[in-house]
Structure formats: C-alpha cells, structure tokens
Amino acid sequence: MTPKSFIVQIFFLCLLFASLPSAQAVSEEKDTLQSAGPPSALQTLKDLRLSIEAIDKDILEKEESYAKALMEERKKAIRMEVSHLLRLKDAYQREFESIASGIEIEETAQAPLKAFRIEEELMEVLRPLVEGLKQMTSRPRELERLRKDITFYENHLPEIRYAISKVEGFMAKTEDEQLSLHLEELLMNWQEKEQEVIRQIRRLRFQLEQKTGPDESMLVTMQKGVTNFVKTRGRNLFLAFSAFITTFLLLRLAYWKWSQNQKKSPPPFYHRLLQVIFHSTTAFVSVSAALLLLYAFGDWMLLSIALLLLITLIWSARNGMAQFWEQGKLILNMGTLREGERVIYTGLPWKVQKLGLHGILINPSLEGGMLRIPLKHLVGMQSRPYEEDEPWFPSEKNDVLLLEDGSIAKILMQTPEQVVAELEGGARRTWAAVDFLGLSLCNLSRKKFGISVTMGLDYGYQAEITNKIPGLLEQYVRKHLDRENHNRYLQYLDVIFLETGPYALNLRVFAVFSPEAAEEYLNLQRKIRKLCMEASSHYGWCIPFPRLALHRPASD
Description:
The chain is an alpha+beta fold. It folds into five domains: about 10-105 and about 140-210, no CATH class; about 220-330, no CATH class; about 335-385, SH3 type barrels; about 400-445; about 450-540, 2-Layer Sandwich (GMP Synthetase, Chain A, domain 3), CATH 3.30.300.330. It has 15 helices and 13 strands. It has a five-stranded antiparallel β-sheet with strand order 4-3-2-1-5. The protein has a five-stranded antiparallel β-sheet with strand order 9-8-7-6-10. Strand 2 and strand 3 (about 360) form a beta hairpin. Helix 3 (about 40-70) packs across helix 7.
C-alpha cells in the first residue's frame, strides 16, 4: 500500500465518522428489523455458522500478519487479538451446539492448583449460597443483558449503513481507478460488518424469544415458584427441621427417664455435671443431625445458610462467655446461689427449690408462690442457709393481724404481688406484698396473744391495793368472762399493782387468750375494761380524777 493511497483511505474514514445518522434513521432501522419478526432456530444456526467462518477468516489474516510483523509490540498485540477471537469462536460454538441439541452447554475449564488460603476456603463454602442467589435472579438478569445487547446492535446498525451509503456515493463520483479499488475494498469491509451485526441481532432475538416464551400471569409464576420450592428446598428444609426436633425430643426423653431414677435431694455433684454435659450434647447432636441431612440431600444452599447462621450465632455469643460460665456454676450448684437456701428476690424471701436451665423459687406462705426465673437473671444473687422455724412471710391466709393504728385485719389473700385483708366492719384493704412486708404488725393467730388493761384507784386504798383488791378484781373478771363463754379461750389471767400515778394507784389486768379468739380481740379488750368499771361499782371503789390544788399564802 503506497503512502498516497493510505492517506486517501484515512481521509475517507474521517469523512465517514465525521457525521452520524439522525435519531429518526435509528428508529427506522429498528422498525425495519422488528417488522421482520422473530428469527427461527435454523436461521440462527446459519448466522452462527457464518459468524464462526468470519472469525476463522480473521484468525488466518491475523496469523499471516503475525508472520510478517517485525516489532515485538506488534506481535504481542496480534496474539491478544487472536486470543480474543478464539474465545469468541468458542462461545459461538457452544451456543451453536446448545441451539442444535436443545441442551445448555456450559463452559468448563481446568483450573491450576492453588495454595491453601483460609479466606478462599471460606468463600468456597459460601459459594453455593451466592450461586443459589444468583440462580434465583439469573432469568431477569439474562433477559436484561439480551435486551441491552440487542439495543446496542440496533443502534450501531444505522451507523454502518450510513457509512456504506457514503462510500457508495464516493464510488459513484470518482473516476480515479486506484481510489475506486480502495473504496471498493472499504465497502466490502463495511458490508461484512453489516451482515455480522444483522446476524447478531437475529441471534439475540432468538435467544430472547426462547427465554421469554409465552406470556403467563404473575399468579401462575408464583405458583410454579412455590411448587418448585416445596418439591426441592422446602422438602429438604422440612426434613432437616424434623430431624432436629426428633433428635432433640428423643434425647430429652432419655434424660427424663434417667433423671427419674435419681431421687436424691439435693442431687449430687456428678448428677449436675452430667446435666450440663447432656444439655450441651443435645444441642450439638440435634444441630448436627439437621446439617448431615442437608449434606446427604446435597442441598448446598440451605447447608451454607445454616452454617452461616451457626457461625453468626457462635460469634455473637463470644462476648457472653463470662455470663455462660456463671450460669454453668449455678447449674453445678457451685455459685453464690445454691439449692435449698434462702434468697431475697424482688424484696421477698424465697427458697431456691431447683437450679437448672431455669431457677425455681418457692415461698410456701404465698398463694401462687412459685416462680420460674431465667438463669441469667439469677447470676450475681446470694443465698444463705435458713432456720427451720424461720417464717417466709409475716402471715398466712385467714390470719388476724393487729395493725399499727390499733385496728385488726383478717388476711383474705396474699400472693407475690399483693396482700388483701378485711378490716373490722367488712372493708377491704390492699397492700403491695413488698410494702406489707415492711409494716410493723402483730399476728394474733400465732400461738396466743395478750390483752393489757390499766385501772386506777384512789390513794385511799393504799393499804389494800397490793393484796386484797387485786384478788377481788381477778375473781370478778374471771367469773364474768366465764359467764359470757369467753373463759374457754382464756389461758392466763393476772391482776397486779402496776405503779403509783400522779392522781391514782394503777392496777394492770393482763389476760392471755388462745389464737381462736383472735377475731374477738377488740371485743375482749372492751369487755375487760367494762368489767373493771363494773367491779369498781360492785365493791364501791372510788376511781380518782385529776384535781387542782390551790395554795393561798398565809395572811399577815
């Protein structure tokens, strides 16, 4: 090729690419191709064969150029071009075989051995998950790729045809034979490009037509997706979950039967150690059964998801190892909280009945007095041994209490949350259980209770106040209590001289009653006071009253 002809060719190429076709021309070309209708499989095979032959022709030309090239850079560039053409030819050949046989031909290549890397191995484990997600979205992504490729070739075709028309115009005008030969060669190149682009458009449209197929409703698509999931991964997931539940329940049943034979209370240390080992083994074996089932089915996607969740769970639990250690000490009964001891929880006393995966606290004096507490909430609590006669609550149901204000109340209900009592006259009063525990109370229903009444007599009875009068008063009170049938509750009665007051000599009447008379506490108190007054009237004793003494100075 002479320098003159090369310059002429460059000049015409610049003219061709200086101007581009209008959008209207592009639209017209698209309409022309679309009006031709979707290509047939036979036409697509023919186009692929022509494309492969064109690539073979290009490879031969590149090999000839490689043999004539002198510069190493030029040879390297030709080798890269040949490598690209070979890959393109291989792709067209696989597509040709796929269309002709109806079977998707995948590209296979043997990769060289690589050095072991933990990151790559982990990615290899998670690869099925990524591949599964890619497979779920492969169809829409493939359709989008085909549409983009078709749009690219359809937009490029008008430019090629515009270039052909320009070259043909120059050929019609020129009379230079040498220039005409170069233009003819250039025209053949552009026409070959045009045919290649048309073949690519037909091929891509055929692929798009095959992948889209007849239109179907969204409901049908969803039904197909659900049916496919149920038949494959849904079945595998159900069986794996069933294996987990079955293994877990069987191991729990075996442990329950074994624990029924262990009747020692509290259980020995080895029993608690076996309990911890069993619970850990149960979780491990149950999870392993589910994973092995997924492995046997070859469902690598679900297996990868399960492993990923398991690794995430273990990784998130690493910060709670200290908490798990403390809980393990509680289960082994080696912590600060121990079975059979007394502990204060939410302000109330409780007995630690059992420590396992959860703690059981009981209070025998409360209705509904049993709590199941998660073991993590018991970490850090302290218990202590208790005495056998140590009360768990100030009262029991139906007990009668003497309140701080002097009134009495009968307990109707006491639970871990509240205490309800009935006051004199039938009114009800409610306390929070914690607040009730802090009250200063006197329980009249425990064993026995006493009533003390003070009576004052005039100083004129000073000679009899320590010997005769107490006996007469005691006899009178006992006689009348017996007459009104209160004597059956009376366990002890005593009248003694108490003290000398500013205006009277005071006697104390002290009576002790059995707890059956607790509800009559106020009536008995009033009754004893009344009997003291009646005894004074009966024996003619004078009850003093405060006197005002006036001292007048002596007159001069």
